[in-house]
Fold:
Amino acid sequence: MTWLGTTSHWGAYLARRRADGELEVAPHPADPAPSALLGNVPGTARHETRIARPAVRRGWLEHGPGPSSGRGREEFVEVGWDTALDLVAAELRRVRERHGDRAVFGGSYGWASAGRFHHAQSQLHRFLNATGGYTSSRGTYSFGTSAMLLPHLVGDADPLLRGADGWDVIRRRTDLVVAFGGLAPKNASVTPGGVTRHVGSAVLADWDGPELAVISPLASDVPPGRRTEWIRVRPATDVALMLGLAHTLLVEGLHDAEFLDRCTTGFDEFARYLRGGPGPERDADWASALCGMPAADIRALARRMASGRTLVSVSWSLQRSEHGEQPVWAGLVLAAMLGGIGLPGGGFGHGYGSIGDVGDTGPLLPLPTLPQGTNPVPEFIPVARIADLLLHPGDEFDYDGGRYRYPDVRAVYWAGGNPFHHHQDLNRLRRAFARPDTVVVHEPHWTATARHADVVLPVTTTLEREDIGAGRRDTHLIAMRRVLEPFREARDDHAVFAELAARLGVRAEFTAGRGTREWLVHLYERWRERLAADGHRVPPFAEFWDAGELELPVPPRTTPLAEFRADPAGSPLPTPSGRIELCPASIAAAGLPGHPVWLEPSDGLADDRFPLRLIAHQPRNRLHGQGDVGAVSRAAKIEGREPVRLHPDDAAARGITTGVVVRVFNERGACLAGALISDEVSPGVAVLATGAWYDPVDDPAQPGGSWCVHGNPNVLTADRPTSPLSQGCSGQQTRVQVERWTAEPPRLSCHRPPRLVPGPR
Ligand SMILES: Nc1nc2c(c(=O)[nH]1)N[C@H]1C(S)=C(S)[C@@H](COP(=O)(O)OP(=O)(O)OC[C@H]3O[C@@H](n4cnc5c(=O)[nH]c(N)nc54)[C@H](O)[C@@H]3O)O[C@H]1N2
Ligand SMILES: Nc1nc2c(c(=O)[nH]1)N[C@H]1C(S)=C(S)[C@@H](COP(=O)(O)OP(=O)(O)OC[C@H]3O[C@@H](n4cnc5c(=O)[nH]c(N)nc54)[C@H](O)[C@@H]3O)O[C@H]1N2
Ligand SMILES: [Mo]
Structure:
């Protein structure tokens, strides 16, 4: 077979079926730094965890809808498509009639797959909107907290989040990058929707840019290369360090008073706090006692930062933590004190090293999207409040200065996400998922979320359908070819919703009378018109499809912050004052302190029972849970379990050596993992990446009543919002203890299908 083009969140690539039937993949020829995650694709495509047929949980099939702790525990009955679709259509009708449209939760957060038409959430939302609407979710797990904070400070977060300076500008114009949370090379290969040239990965694979100071508890957050240094800090203390740096700038007169005066408001309030009003003087000595960096080094770093053009970079991970606004806010204020905001390569960056498109040099263009219709239901949740929604209907919650109420949800519909991957405190999430009447999940694989559903509908992957794909800042639009036949009875999400829409009397409204190929042409041609209106010419669909890809036009880069800086009165920011508001009243009104502050995490900086601070960061070897059954992810496992990294001293104190199975636990939960001893980790820190498929085993001896025998850190993390302003995900860190596990470890079952029995076709 010939090579066919496609794309994915880890990049564009070529795929073909070999003569022996095996899938083979190769990087896109234009990619300077293809992602290692490509190696997971062949072993995943036809893995035994693929869902072959629609399946219904036995208890739900026999007793009908209702709350049940059988979810995630009972066997499934495999049924025919017509049976499954009739059941789902009837249940949606029942819930809407009995409990109202808000009783359907369709937030369905998750990364699904690349491809602009078959984007699972867009398909689900279009379908639900056509049948009455749904309770939705707002924001992301990725940067949900900064997305709420930044508009208060700069009016519009887009120039910072999407319009960041490219790596080329940084290499030419910046003297020093100070990267809080690091520039982890492992993360840059991923961009939502895809990327054809991994520019960021190439830069971070061998840093030859300006001086780079990485502030992190982990050496692997420092890219290899020249002029880099690793500054170890105690986790969750970055704000203290930032305050100590700011204090040094202030008392030594190194801050840019002219810039602060001309372009910002509120600096005096912050300066008073630095100088001890109220509380101690937040000087370098004070900061040092908290973060562990010597005070003399803090002062020296502050002077270095003021001596040239410095980029203050804050990773997204720092805001995925309790009080997650503070490091982003303090970082921005620090950058404002240095006076570099709006200068090329200077100022404040957010998300460099977190994701591929921040720093990418590709064009920033609109992309084709599936119209979703309008949702008549006003009820929503901040995305990371899913367990609260299900456990506490009717309760109130705060969000960005407003107060709202959780509706009484009876049906949960998930397509393209894995809450049993992404959410915190999985023992609690299991209790929450026992509450609704019905859970419907579309999945290609038997993930933990599929296993916690009542009706599981098997869907195709990108390799099994046609689509058009590109990500933010991508250089190409890719014609995504069908490389494989649909697996067994799997159908496209779109086809499933079209059948359900037919049963609910809105098929024509949902499909608009178009087949898949007609949709691709339609979306493409609408997009082509939109580009043409902006003066960009791209070929008609047929020409694009024949060529297999299209190099995107490059619009001139806009630089709103530069324009603002040059003339704050003439090009004001969309804030009340038109300037950068360092201490906006709106944040105080939402219940937070009115300026950036150091706040200790509520689980403390020290704890005798759970002395290690666990970092649950993004996995190097897969995308979240996707690809966990693939070769690259599996090769890193230890005794089949996810590796947990420990410092040699912490390991020695516990009699732990590389390769042994350990139990990681706290008051909420426990999991097994495989020990990997490494001096890349700071003492007192343990690192367990997210994404090992949740493999729960009920055991009353374990905290929470069940444990994960595979190594998913979200059994340990707390389901605690970042703040009442943002209600964001705080899953990046928690406290744990680790002990050697000497008994026979329970067998893994998550990489095999659940118990399945044949039922009505
Ligand atoms: N402790 C802790 N937890 C975290 C984080 C952390 O830092 N620490 N990070 C958080 C972050 S930033 C994120 S973004 C989330 C990610 O959480 P998710 O995005 O929910 O994780 P994925 O594993 O990518 O889930 C996507 C699912 O969609 C399925 N899928 C793929 N293609 C299709 C399709 O075409 N149709 C359908 N129906 N399904 C499809 C895949 O099989 C997969 O199961 O995790 C969050 N969780
Ligand atoms: N390979 C791969 N890449 C990915 C993803 C993936 O699943 N796999 N997911 C993508 C997604 S959805 C997102 S949102 C981004 C997330 O991007 P990030 O949130 O930035 O990524 P993380 O890997 O979670 O965290 C980055 C680093 O922050 C450091 N860190 C944690 N706590 C602290 C602290 O208190 N202080 C300091 N100074 N450093 C700390 C950790 O050492 C960690 O390695 O990654 C994207 N990239
Ligand atoms: Mo994310």
About this structure: The CA atoms of residues 215 and 231 lie 5 Å apart. The mean pLDDT is 97. Residues 142, 180-182, 184, 186-187, 189-190, 215-218, 221, 233, 235-236, 238, 315-318, 320, 354-355, 615, 617-620, 623-624, 732-733 surround MGD (ligand 2) (CB under 6 Å). DSSP finds 26 helices and 32 strands in the chain.
